[in-house]
Automatic annotation (TrEMBL):
Tree of life domain: Bacteria
Family: Belongs to the iron-sulfur cluster assembly SufBD family.
GO aspect biological process, one term: iron-sulfur cluster assembly
Ranges for domain SUF system FeS cluster assembly SufBD core: 117-346
Coiled coil: none
Name listed for the protein in its UniProt record: Fe-S cluster assembly protein SufD
């Protein structure tokens, strides 16, 4: 009997195409789809979700940026990212207009640019391209709200020596479904900072990915999610180190409460043979606050070279620490307030890293509302 071999992680991400027909309809047993409740995708995965709804796009841009609405034939659309799964390809095949934001060379944006995407019902598809030219700097907020069944792709193209900070808020209505791929392409010495906050929606599946085109790229992916009863919030990350001397750091934290609350976090990091000098780490933590909630956390690290500066990963899911609660209660703090303080501390260091003060305050308030929701049940 021969030895069984496990396929390398990289094979999961090597099939890409703009054509939806190049991807089989997922059945739920595939590695990429085994955690996702396909029946709740409302046909986004099998071609039955016909566009007929609307997600309105409004842009409050820094004055230095160029904002354009373009057609499918614009050469910047799809230049940095080729869809890697069927829903992503469906979104690429189905969108009609794309939003292109450009930060001109050596420009430092004077204020954050806010893109508000508001679901107005029905099925919709979208596409966004953000180009940060060499030596430029910008902060971008993607604010998702309203109700829709929505699939889209977002391309971040960060030029040589440029810096882009992105905050993506998924604050949908309770009945929304959102499947999205965020792809960042980093040139030499480019800096990319992503902060994802996922709170609303019936089902949200967000797939951030990072690719490097030259040495010196630096990516940091931070995420926060709070899952309520019946919600499915899924984050699937890929950082693909293909060139030497680049860095990545991933930190995602989530809390779950209520029957049927389900969080999924997949963190895939690949260090290719040619990516010597890579420095990478990924971390996921989940607080399971009530019975009936489930957290699936799968960190994957594939190293194909022995010449790395650092590489590691960690994952843990569990209840609130009884010792922490006891410590606070022993000092006269009631149980519910002690519980609230521990959860605030769990998220606090992440929230402090949000680049936009107004968004930071909004996220803090949203976490407080989530805690109040559980206390009033």
């Amino acid at each position: 009997m021969g030895l069984e071999t496990t396929k390398p992680l990289s094979t999961l991400h090597e099939h890409t195409s703009y054509d939806v027909n190049d991807f089989a309809v997922p059945g739920g047993r595939e590695e990429a789809w085994r955690f996702t409740p396909l029946r709740r995708l409302r046909g986004l995965h099998n071609g039955t979700a016909e566009a007929g709804g609307r997600v309105a796009v409004e842009v409050d841009a820094a004055p230095e940026l160029r904002v354009e609405t373009v057609g499918r034939d614009d050469e910047r659309v799809g230049k940095a990212y080729v869809p890697a799964d069927r829903v992503s390809a469906q979104a690429y095949t189905s969108f009609e207009k794309a939003t292109v934001l450009t930060v001109p060379r050596e420009t430092v944006a004077s204020k954050p640019t806010v893109v508000t995407l508001t679901g107005e019902g029905g099925v919709a598809y979208g596409h966004t391209v953000v180009v940060v030219e060499p030596m430029a700097e910008a902060v971008l907020v993607l604010d998702h709200k309203g109700s829709a069944t929505y699939a889209d792709n977002v391309e971040f193209v960060v030029g040589e020596g440029a810096s882009l900070k992105v905050v993506s808020l998924q604050d949908w209505a309770d009945d929304a479904v959102h499947v999205s791929h965020h792809h960042a392409q980093l040139a030499k010495d480019a800096v990319f900072r992503s902060f994802v906050v996922t709170l609303g929606g019936d089902l949200v599946r967000l797939s951030p990915s990072v690719a490097y085109t030259a040495p010196g790229g630096d990516a940091e992916l931070i995420g926060l999610y709070f899952v309520d009863a019946g919600q499915h919030l899924e984050h699937r990350l890929l950082v693909d180190h293909t060139v030497p001397n680049c860095r990545s750091n991933v930190v995602y934290k989530g809390a779950l409460q209520g029957e049927g609350a389900h969080a999924v976090w997949i963190g895939d990091v690949i260090i290719r043979a040619e990516a010597e000098g890579t420095d990478t780490y990924e971390l996921n933590r989940n607080l399971v606050l009530t019975d009936g909630a489930r957290a699936d956390s799968v960190p994957n690290l594939e190293i194909l070279t022995g010449e790395v500066a650092g590489a590691g990963h960690a994952s843990a899911s569990g209840r609130l620490d009884d010792e922490h609660l006891f410590y606070l209660q022993a000092r006269g703090i009631p149980f519910e307030e002690a519980r609230r303080l521990v959860i605030r501390g769990f998220f606090g260091q992440l929230i402090e890293r949000i680049a936009v003060p107004e968004v930071r305050e909004r996220v803090t308030a949203a976490v407080e509302r989530e805690l109040e929701r559980e206390l009033t049940k």
